[in-house]
Amino acid sequence: MTTLNDLLTKIGSQSIEIVDLTAPLSSTTPVLSLPEPFANTIPASLEPVSNFDDAGPMWSWNNLHTGEHTGTHLDAPTHWVSGRDGLSVDQIPPNRLIGPIAVIDVTAEVEKNADFVLEPEHIEAWESENGPLPEGAWLILRTGWGSRVGDPERFANADADGPHTPGISAAAAKWLAESSPISGFGVETVGIDAGAAGGFEPMFPAHYYLLGNNKYGLTQLLNVDKLPTLGAVLVVSPLPIVGGTGSPARVFALVERS
């Protein structure tokens, strides 16, 4: 039996589970909100073209209106000034969109402090326990934030000082971008940076360092609690938008169950 046939057999028997990590895309899907004078992307909406009516008696279809960075989406290098001469989403090699998953669980820390940020020492402690980050891995930060997705106010968690959501420090972002073998970094929050990252140096360091070093971001993941620390495989499927700085994506994990 070939490897692919073996994979399909295990999927059919559910000894390999396909876990959907994608948030539903609708008009209520959270979208990153930047303060003035910065411009913001639009939320998702459907515009009917026909619906079994005079405009199309045998078919129903819609125009989709949304931004590249809405819902569960991939950030390509060209999304950020540090990667502006890098790859657009259609140019990302497919083998960079499939890879091993490594999960760092900081749920307990985030329950105590919504502004928690991952530091290099957290990654070092993880590697001491689990071994080096795998080549081509997608590092996923488990924060428990996905449980808030049905409540826009709790998900944004903003006050007069801005949003309070977990993320990664500038030092950790720089280390992952320049010294680790990962393909990308995934989060449960609205963006790959912490809510307070506009005040970091550099501002939004996950974007700055990762996208500037040909690594990718992945946001608004659900069902992260169903992933093992190691051993699962991530499949990321963005639209190949020519010149796109990112794309909404369907994201799956292949998880082997005993």
What's this model, at a glance?
The protein has 258 residues and is α/β, with parallel strands linked by helices. The chain is 19% helix and 29% strand.
Uncertain ranges? none
CATH class: Alpha Beta
Strand proportion: 25-35%
Q: Provide mean pLDDT, rounded.
A: 96
Q: Which descriptor suits the 3D outline? A: globular
Radius of gyration: 19 Å
Layout of SSEs?
Elements: H1 3-12, E1 16-20, E2 45-53, E3 56-65, E4 73-75, E5 98-105, H2 107-112, E6 117-118, H3 120-130, E7 138-142, H4 152-156, E8 158-159, E9 162-163, E10 167-168, H5 170-179, E11 184-186, H6 205-212, E12 216-218, E13 230-238, E14 246-256
Parallel strand pairs: 5-7, 6-10, 7-11, 11-12
Antiparallel strand pairs: 1-14, 2-3, 4-12, 4-14, 5-13, 8-9, 13-14
Helix pairs in contact: 5-6
List keywords for this structure.
258 residues; alpha/beta
Describe this structure in words.
- The structure is a single chain.
- The protein is an alpha/beta fold and 258 residues long.
- It has one domain (3-39, 68-256): Glucose Oxidase, domain 1 (3-Layer(bba) Sandwich), CATH 3.50.30.
- It contains 6 helices and 14 strands.
- The two termini are 21 Å apart.
- This is Cyclase family protein.
- Its EC number is 3.5.-.-.
- GO terms for molecular function: hydrolase activity.
- InterPro entries: KFase/CYL (IPR007325), KFase_sf (IPR037175).
